[in-house]
Amino acid sequence: MSRATHADEIAEAVAVLRGGGLVAFPTETVYGLGADASLPAAVRRVFAVKGRPVDHPLIVHLAQASQLDAWASEVPPLARRLAAALWPGPLTLVLRKAAHVDAVVTGGLETLALRVPAHPLALALLREHGGGIAAPSANRFGRVSPTTAAHVREDLGDDVALVLDGGPCAVGIESTIVDLSRGDDGAAILRPGGVSAERLAAIVGRTLPVRDDAQVRTPGQLPSHYAPRARVLVVEPAALAHTLATLPSSRVGVIEAVAGIPAPRWHDGPPLRVELDPERDLAHQLYATLRQLDAAGCDVIVATLPPPAELGLAVADRLRRAAGPRDDA
Ligand code: TXA
Ligand code: MG
Asked: Which of 76, 84, 114, 188 is the most buried (most CB within 10 A)?
């Protein structure tokens, strides 16, 4: 798409947002469903369209780190250090909110999640808009996050006024959420994601604890989330053959983490099998692969756990939640 087309599209998107409408936009992690964060009625529509419970807070996206002080009442030194090192990028910081931030954005909490995404279209939109854009992933609540514009349209249809198409997301898995609302000493990872724990440790100078017991209800921490239609089973690599041998279903999809392969390898089934390198393609292709296996009619997807290093931690987290108990099961 030409530069001029993008400029027109961004002007249109800003007009939609200012008018209280919703715009889906690409980020480097997944596509977001955006509303002007200063318009509570628009933000309420995001919850309605997603089918998301209103006590599950949203992330406010900003164009640059210098806007932190306009949205947070306290910015501890470590928050500034992480923002300087990693923004734009797949890191979300949870800080104490500024007084003007409406409770609908934060689910009634005194804290607010903030991030500067690393996608040229998102940044152009945010710069042109000038304020904050509240955006969860642009999928129905509990389902697989979208990593292409086509995924967004499949999921949300006409419920979103405009979908900006920025191609497939480079990272493919959501941002890492770091809580700094309790100051530097209370820093903790709330959700593993696109910035690895190793990378954070190198910047912070110590390993940050992963806190999974937040009093906050974060959808990413519910037992079932990020789920395709097919039932998901997560297994250690050594248990794959045995698991496949004992499955009664014939429509089985397999996602296998295989180190050192140059590109994803699909094998025709049954079972329908794809091998993805955990250091190259696994995070990047995970959600698209879950969708492909759904589309191929699989009723069970068996996934092997990647080693828990680098992005493998976030992939394992998402797979476990995709495999979690379901209300509709
Ligand atoms: O990569 C991403 O983070 C994507 C893109 C679009 O930026 N967004 C995303 O949004 O994954 P969502 O709404 O699907 O997940 C945001 C997570 C939720 O688990 C939410 O509960 C958590 O952030 N969160 C938001 N505000 C919070 C707060 N004040 N304290 C703790 N967790 C919070
Ligand atoms: Mg989500």
From this structure: 114
